[in-house]
Amino acid sequence: MPLRSARARGVPHDAVHHPLFARYYARFSVSAETRMGMARVRERMLTGLSGRVIEVGAGNGLNFSHYPGTVSEVVAIEPERVLRQLAVESAQRAGVPVDVAPGAAEALPVKSEAFDAAVLSLVLCSVRDVPRALAELRRVLRPGGQLRFFEHGLGGGRVMTATQRALDRTLWPPLSGGCHLSREPVAALRDAGFTLGPYRQVMMPENGPALPSSYCVLGTAWRPS
Ligand SMILES: C[S@@+](CC[C@H](N)C(=O)[O-])C[C@H]1O[C@@H](n2cnc3c(N)ncnc32)[C@H](O)[C@@H]1O
């Protein structure tokens, strides 16, 4: 399917430019697949999907090998140039067709109601405008289409949430490619008009120390029919 230009829609292709973070993430994320159990989480997140899927903020493409054969096509949007190149390489090894394209969550370069499902993993923490990104996801999903998500956010006790908020005001976003620790993905999905399906809290790493980025949620949401 021809992609519409994100630039024409007000967001440049390389709207996200974090080359140092991208290189760090490319290494860290690969070791986290086994060391932190991320491969298992990706498998669970994507199981049972079918039809046309859009993955937003695909990074270096670590989800690609976990899509089931019932998925006919994945359109993977990634705005960061270094990660996008790695995603292209990962797409070549995937078991389903994956088309990697530049673009940003806030102005997806695709037609409305074109996808059966959408995937977001560790992305809502980093987008500039969460409501706009989720409105875009609703636009591109068909009525009744589903969103699979794995996101980290606010969690833990008072000391932990205060720490997350303090880090968000200071060091964390500039050091982590624009990531925030104290966003609330489930509330954001609800506010955007998604119907929450089953979801559950997951600690990442599951058995390690609780870090400010450990409080995750894994689940499904639906665009109402
Ligand atoms: C922590 S990485 C996660 C990558 C991948 N989804 C994964 O599960 O490994 C965050 C990703 O969000 C992307 N990102 C940041 N801002 C974005 C935006 N406005 N629109 C789309 N993706 C964005 C980054 O370039 C990066 O690939």
From TrEMBL:
InterPro entries per UniProt: Methyltransf_11, SAM-dependent_MTases_sf, Thiol_S-MT
Name this polypeptide is given: Class I SAM-dependent methyltransferase
CDD domains assigned to the protein according to its UniProt record, in alphabetical order: AdoMet_MTases
Origin superkingdom: Bacteria
Residue span, Methyltransferase type domain: 55-148
Keyword Methyltransferase: yes
GO annotation, biological process: methylation
Organism ancestry: Bacteria, Bacillati, Actinomycetota, Actinomycetes, Kitasatosporales
Record GO terms (molecular function): methyltransferase activity
Keywords: Methyltransferase, Transferase
